[in-house]
């Protein structure tokens, strides 16, 4: 596996993934588990953060130095499903700014369609945490990365709960500098472009739209 693909292997994540896969998991529980898993992925994506400054504080006992994150990342959601990860990301990094990309893969034209794009004005040069629960064909995630790079962003890290092997290979082919954080790699996709065994359509299960 490419060194830029980080599979976070943990018994608690495997336990929670089982509930995400289960078609009988209610939408409310599905949303909460997506948030819990996303927090862990964000935590791992921030593990090597280098932009820290030391400031003077005072504890109840004595004066001390404390580290503060500076130059925080921009958390970008690929709508709709990425919005299910957004609260989790911002609860971990409340001082981060946020961007939104509305994009989908049109099965009739066999291409991606962008319908919304909104970023912070100061995004140039900033590191981006790009949230999308599933990477299947990888067409939408690649199109989103293309757009972000056109804006001159810094390093991009993709936060995804599940990813296909072929999708990851495609991402690394087009964007070898991008890191992907996930909890499991699926080896199959069906004719509809869904991961197998997967967890279905994440957006529908998050927002009860089916």
Automatic annotation (TrEMBL):
Could you say which cofactors this protein requires?
Mg(2+)
The catalytic activity of this protein is classed by the Enzyme Commission as: 2.4.2.9
Keyword Glycosyltransferase assigned to the entry: answer is yes
- Give all residue intervals belonging to the Phosphoribosyltransferase domain: 7-209
Which InterPro entries has this protein been placed in? PRTase-like (IPR029057), PRTase_dom (IPR000836), UPRT (IPR005765), UPRTase/APRTase (IPR050054)
Entry keyword set = Allosteric enzyme, Glycosyltransferase, GTP-binding, Nucleotide-binding, Transferase
What SUPFAM superfamilies does the record point to? PRTase-like (SSF53271)
- Kindly indicate whether the keyword Kinase belongs to this entry: no
For molecular function, the Gene Ontology terms on record are: uracil phosphoribosyltransferase activity
Instruction: Note the superkingdom of the native organism.
Output: Bacteria
**Which CDD domains does the entry mention?**
PRTases_typeI
Would you identify the family this protein belongs to, as annotated? Answer: Belongs to the UPRTase family.
Q: What is this protein's name?
A: Uracil phosphoribosyltransferase
Which lineage ranks, top first, belong to the organism behind this chain?
Bacteria, Pseudomonadati, Bdellovibrionota, Bdellovibrionia, Bdellovibrionales
């Amino acid at each position: 596996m490419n060194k830029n693909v980080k599979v976070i292997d943990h018994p608690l994540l495997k336990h929670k993934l089982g509930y995400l896969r289960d078609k009988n998991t209610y939408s409310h529980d599905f949303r909460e588990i997506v948030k819990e898993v996303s927090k862990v992925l964000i935590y791992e994506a921030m593990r090597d953060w280098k932009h820290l400054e030391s400031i003077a504080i005072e504890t109840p006992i004595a004066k001390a130095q404390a580290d503060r994150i500076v130059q925080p990342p921009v958390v970008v959601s690929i709508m709709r499903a990425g919005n299910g990860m957004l609260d989790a990301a911002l609860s971990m990094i409340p001082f981060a700014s946020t961007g939104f990309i509305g994009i989908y893969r049109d099965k009739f034209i066999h291409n991606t369609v962008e319908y919304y794009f909104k970023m912070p004005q100061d995004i140039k040069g900033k590191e981006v945490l790009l949230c999308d629960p599933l990477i299947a064909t990888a067409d939408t995630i690649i199109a989103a990365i293309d757009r972000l790079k056109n804006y001159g962003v810094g390093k991009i890290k993709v936060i995804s709960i599940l990813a296909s092997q072929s999708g990851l290979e495609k991402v690394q082919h087009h964007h070898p500098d991008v890191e992907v954080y996930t909890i499991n790699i699926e080896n199959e996709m069906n004719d509809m472009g869904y991961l197998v065994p997967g967890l279905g359509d994440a957006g529908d299960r998050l927002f009860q739209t089916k």
